[in-house]
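Subject: Nuclear pore complex protein

B.,
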Amino acid sequence: YWLLERYIRLLISLKMFTMIPFYASKLPPETAEHIIINFMYEIEDEKIRLNVLAAAHSVGIDTTELCNKLFAHAIEVNDAADEGDKCDLKLISAWNWLKYPGKEALIEALFAANLILRRFFGVEKLKEAKLLFEQMEGGLCDVVEKFWSIEFIGTSLPRELADAIAENRSYQAYLVALDDFNSWFNHFKMSEPEVPRTPSKDLWIRMDIQQRAAFEVEQAKAAELCTRHRSAGDVLCETAIDSLIGILLFPGGWLKFTFLEQNITNEKVRERMEKLREIRQSYLAAVVGMLIVIYDQSQDSHGAVRLADLLADEKYEIAEALSRDQLRGFCRHLAVISGGMNKWT
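Prediction pasted inline below.
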């Protein structure tokens, strides 16, 4: 087979990709799979990907299984320890292979997306996490739920799949909340438009009618801009608070899952549980911190009291997710804000 392998390598070098599945299918299965996966992994252009998949399908290759193996290969070669941007982009690119087979790979695509998101959130690569979500056209969770309701009418989602949907939505909700907070904070840092001060009585007397009229128009415009600035700030503030509180009140708990006892002995399940616990602690602390910044800068003592009550409410188990030091620090800040003093001025 060495001559055929050399010919396939020549086709790869000439970028005659659609011919490769046919000739590779003449090789022993393991050799063919190795060649196909390695060359397809490097393809980035979507049109070429689809053409190669069509060529593979035409020679009897299971393209759904092939796409799953392509993603598994990407996970293997882009080890979690390697935090380079190139590896991140390759993982995201490889995930897109799971979109091509259609509904057959939807559920696998969801689990794969969560695997990548877990990695990204674990090392605070939120820009990359956003990029992955941008690949999920139409909302992956909604599509999976619709697919299940059609294919398995009257059947509830399996526990594992329901948890995967909740995990995916948890990540997305945090990214939305972070964007809302940043929008508010960027607006907050902007200087408020200045309204021209009314001239002194002597200066006003010396101004003619046109000068007075021009000043009044300028003053009115500035006052309108100032009002708009404050209104926009109020809206952004309210939106950010709603989004952040939404994380704390996330249905079932943000990234909080109760695993079945028989699964806890599974090493991979235990590792995932520990990773989710770490992410939950880190990002819930970030959410509480962002809310404290908003309440402090807006001098909202009532909001601070509500947040303190929420932290103390055992129903949501927020305090349980935080370390003692984090909780003590938050309580000190909230006590200051609710007492009407601004600690960070």
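The chain has a mean pLDDT of 89.

T.
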